[in-house]
N5-carboxyaminoimidazole ribonucleotide synthase
Amino acid sequence: MTAQNNQVFAPGSTIGIIGGGQLGRMSAMAAAKLGYRVHILNPAATSPAIEVSASATVGFYDDPVALEDFASRCDVVTFEFENISVEGLSLLEKRRPVRPGGEILRISQDRVLEKTRLAQAGVELAPWKEVSGPADLSAVGELGFPLILKTTRFGYDGKGQFRVENAEALSALTDLPYPLVAEKMIDFQRELSVMVVRGSDGTVRCFDAVENRHRDGILDITLAPARVMPEVAERAQAIAMRIATDLGLVGIMGVEMFHAADGQLLVNEIAPRPHNSGHWTMDACLIDQFEMHIRAVAGLPLPPARRHSDAVMHNLVGPEDMARVPAILATDGASLHLYGKHEARPGRKMGHVNTLFPRGALPGELALEGLLPPR
Ligand code: ADP
Ligand code: MG
């Protein structure tokens, strides 16, 4: 059974979600809103998603027994994170429709496949080279410095990345975790992202382009909409829609881009699932990214992705941000979302806060800092 079929799963059906984290939790809550049951597959018996879902299979993502049990308990399958084994996925695809399909997942798991496929789709990327082993390393200097090396698989929140300033630093590198990709560091004006959703009938809907800022490699703030010329925002949306259509996506996808100093939009990476840079939609849109995803997975109609307000999303990361929660709760206009994680380890995403503004009234740079109580 493939994602290409148009089967509709009416409210009351069971949606299986692979992964038990916060994206699964918020997807499960959106599914519950529409009357679905949610069944989670997760290696641990408790998790943010399991705590808000009807039931769960506890087991590893590549365990055939767990996968069989999981598949037998749901009507349609989706996932909240990408790093499921390809073998596990093909087992599932034999039993149930998987949306989006295994092919897209395989691409987004591997930066080389991803970049190759995105280039085929006709979008611009940062100049890059494959680095399968030490022998490929000297050639990456041709990209120009500074450059960045990234592990091809399992990178997230800036992990598995090495910045290289010059040729001396490059030749001094040892014991790298190959395979890698090398990318030229882009001198960007802004980092943008677009959430795009596509239904099994080919309908494509696109949220407004937003602007993202990172702190220690982790998303810190999203501004919705991005403060760019309308022409740039439209170009960003067109790129996201082109990728969604080209890949035959069914479900939602985050497309990260660099708005380069010269005005080019370069695609950084795609995530075929709900994405942290789409959390602003939970308060600033009638239908948010999670409901759009669930609708696409279930084969329901996809309404236009309308934004009724401007929004600023702040991530809450680690114990230092959890310490701010009492003050955030007492802040007028702050919509708090917590993920129910029991332990606030440094660097762990614990929740986020959305602050809304009338359309066209995003605060200026200085006021932005004062929206939430200080760290
Ligand atoms: P992850 O999978 O960890 O999100 P990314 O490839 O998105 O990995 O990189 C994380 C962040 O590092 C980006 O959001 C961006 O801020 C910075 N970065 C990554 N690649 C480049 C690049 N080629 N040029 C400039 N900045 C980059
Ligand atoms: Mg990224």
About this structure: The radius of gyration is 20 Å. The pocket of magnesium ion (ligand 2) is lined by residues 256, 269 (CB under 6 Å). The domain at 188-369 is CATH 3.30.470.20 (D-amino Acid Aminotransferase; Chain A, domain 1). The longest helix spans residues 230-247.
